[in-house]
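Work Package 3 (structural annotation) set out to generate three-dimensional models for the target panel prioritized at the project kickoff. During this period the team completed the workflow that converts sequence records into discrete structure tokens, so that structures can be stored uniformly alongside our sequence database. As a representative example, we reproduce one entry of 255 residues exactly as it appears in the project archive.
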Amino acid sequence: MNNTFLTAKQTQELLKVDRTTIYRMLKDGRLNGVKVGHQWRFYTSEVNDFLAGVKGLGDGSIPVLVDILPLHCMQPVQDVFAEIAEVGAVTTGKDGQPLTRISNSCDFCKLILGSEPGHQECIASWRKLAEQKEAAPEFVQCHAGLEYARARIEVNGTLIAMLIAGQFYRESSNPAEDQRRFHRLSETYAIDENLMAQAARQIQVLDSRKVPQLSHWLEEVAHTFEQISSERADFMSRLRHIAEMSVFEKSFPRE
């Protein structure tokens, strides 16, 4: 054997992966090889790149986001949580893009979300939550002056989504400050200022004793989503493994 190529077994031993992973990498283009008779040979230079960390193996253990998250199950749970907690709620990706419909949204936020610039600003606010260092929910003010926080949804230690709850005040707002804020928001998002002021009267002022309780509920619901998603990811990974083994056994004889 010359130094240009490695056998599948040699490649498997060097990369410390199983035979199925080697052929998965061949199939999806992460490895290139040539077939000599009935046997595959892999380029030594590419295997060396993987060993040097130039290329990522990717273990395929986590399917794509939309496959992992059972959004059709999460939406009704999110709806009930938002209604009981008397807050607005949404599940987003770590990029802030909403994955579910917003539950129990207040009229004030509906006005802002109905404006394209306002909608994008909300997404930007949600995206900042993914950058918070603390794992526990931490309430902060959004660009419109309302409070909100997030709970992380992780699978195998990787952040894949966030459950966000908010759309409330933690204390009664100052009328003069409100007027200045409404004027700024109405000009920025082209929304009637009187409509904003009217809608703002319905914004909840959350009792300070209820904020810790909301944090607890938020984490509990997010943890439930994590469990469902982890089980789903594991189940789908097993199905893929079975399907790939069947294909590979037929396509690639043992050496």
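The chain has ten helices and eight strands.
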